[in-house]
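ok new one. same drill as before - structure tokens go in, u give me an amino acid for every spot. 196 of them this time. try not to just spam alanines like last time pls lmao
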């Protein structure tokens, strides 16, 4: 598997962001965002990764502002330079994720079909799970073909909250029947509250 990497080491900068869904780590290479992670999510950057204080790094400041606008003011589109690191296939999946409009969902099969191979749903799912730039590259908008909320590296509760924030949690799933969608939608547990 080929990874897209730089020949010379890249200095990364980090800052923390307090979201309504928990603390997030934002990482940039100085010019572009390379990672947005909820704390303790699967595939969180390793402690050994070298990162410097990112206070004052323009792209990190802009990311914080745009995330605030997303959570509190209805921002629908992020306008940030992105530089995720991954294999060519992962990059193609992440590019396709960015094409899913705010408030809509797609299945893994939909993404595989859009990428030209309907048989790669599982590979799409694996690449989706490895997305290093959560929310901004909206992997939370991908659900099961039957309309169920499948896994999410940051937790299904957060996925549900993000889809609810976007008004997508109760909308029909492309390709799923209304009866299936109605029957399989999840609701937030009674003890789960989000202050958007």
């Amino acid at each position: 598997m080929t990874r897209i990497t730089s020949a010379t080491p890249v200095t990364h900068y980090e800052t923390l962001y307090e979201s309504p869904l928990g603390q997030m780590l934002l990482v940039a290479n100085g010019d572009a965002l390379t990672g947005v992670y909820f704390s303790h999510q699967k595939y969180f950057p390793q402690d050994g990764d070298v990162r410097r204080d990112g206070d004052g790094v323009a792209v990190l400041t802009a990311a914080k502002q745009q995330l605030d606008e997303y959570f509190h003011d209805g921002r629908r589109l992020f306008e940030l330079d992105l530089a995720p690191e991954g294999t060519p296939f992962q990059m193609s999946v992440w590019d396709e994720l960015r094409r899913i409009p705010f408030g809509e969902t797609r299945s893994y099969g939909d993404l595989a079909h859009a990428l030209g191979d309907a048989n790669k749903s599982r590979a799409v799912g694996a690449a989706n799970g490895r997305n290093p730039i959560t929310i901004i590259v909206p992997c939370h908008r991908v659900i099961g073909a039957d309309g169920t909320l499948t896994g999410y590296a940051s937790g299904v509760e957060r996925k549900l909250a993000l889809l609810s924030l976007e008004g997508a949690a109760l909308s029909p799933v492309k390709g799923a029947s209304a009866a299936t969608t109605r029957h399989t939608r999840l609701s937030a547990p009674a003890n789960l509250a989000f202050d958007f």
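The CA atoms of residues 112 and 118 lie 5 Å apart. and btw Strands lie at 12-19, 22-28, 33-38, 51-53, 106-107, 142-143.
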